[in-house]
Amino acid sequence: MKRGGRIDRARIIAEAAARISQELDAAAIMVSGDLSFEGIETGGIPVYYISMRPKSIIDHLVATGKEGKSPAKELSDQLNREASGNVDHLQHAAAIEYVLEGPKSGTIVGVVETRGSSSIIVHSLDENPLIKAMKECEERVRPEVMNAVLKIAFDIALTGREGKKIGAAFIVGDSEEVLKRSHQIILNPYEGHEEACRNVLDRKNWESIKEFAQLDGVFVIDETGIVHAAGRYLDVDGKNIEIEKGLGGRHVSAAAISRDTVAIAVTVSESGGVLRVYKDAKETICMESLQPATRYI
Ligand SMILES: Nc1ncnc2c1ncn2[C@@H]1O[C@H](COP(=O)(O)OP(=O)(O)OP(=O)(O)O)[C@@H](O)[C@H]1O
Asked: What positions does the domain DAC occupy (predicted)?
């Protein structure tokens, strides 16, 4: 197709993505970058605009390779890095939408635009490693509880509190054992309150949870979603815990309590707003806080 003598590349890409998604009966099209679907028939398949790929990853891609590499090898390495970065970005965005009422299963057709290139990616949500890890947590904690805690954690990671970044940790499930292995560092703000005011499944309680997230210590939540405590210090042995370098007491203790009990630990780091999930002492999820998608159709 030509427009003003120039091939309208963006439209060709969008039409191709729409065609592929219809032929595969995709659950959604997810677009990262500036690509319009106006006037393009998708057969009722929704189009989500996801956040752009973080610039740091793109910059990393264009870094030149080691000296002595042949130009062909250098180009193929760069393309591989770019492709895996795009897939990673789509997987992240799709997992966030999975938590936030987006498509739960099936195929996603992703279009990721970076500087000079456009990629169409066909992604299966059932094979998404982040979603798989979330489902594994749901074997121990009720799915709706896991979902509510992740939503609250994403919100804290993304917006902080009163413009200030904050960190937090939620220890979910096996609460009796978690309480045995911890103590209050401040008065427990949930002590003596009715269960209705302590349930994470009720959105009305989310504001106070986010408020208490500013306090030192962790939240202890049972598998049905009742918050038993906030401001709790975990008395755990952080030795032999292998977690990412640079992380401190919050993450070490979260990983350790997930080793000593069958609880799931969800953390938000104060420094980078990164959400992590620990299960059986291992980090099973690590996600940058991306802006939620906006749905176009
Ligand atoms: N054992 C623990 N139990 C509960 N909370 C803890 C524990 N250790 C540290 N914290 C909490 O974590 C906060 C941050 O500690 P630290 O900076 O060492 O952790 P971090 O893992 O680097 O977290 P962040 O990336 O959010 O800074 C402390 O102020 C404290 O509230």
From this structure: 128-289
Give the ipTM: 0.97
Angle at 297 between CA 4 and CA 30, to 5 degrees: 80
List the 264-268 sheet strands across, edge first.
Answer: 182-184, 227-234, 218-221, 168-172, 264-268, 275-279, 282-287
* Residue reference for tokens 């703000």: 189
Tell me the per-residue pLDDT of 184-232, one tens digit each, with 9 for 90 and over: 999 999 999 999 999 999 999 999 999 999 999 999 999 999 999 999 9
Cβ 270 under 6 angstroms from ligand 1: yes
Please tell me the residue having the least CA distance from ligand 1 atom 25.
269
Q: Which residue segments constitute the domains of the chain, with CATH numbers given?
A: 2-127 (3.40.1380), 132-290 (3.40.1700.10)
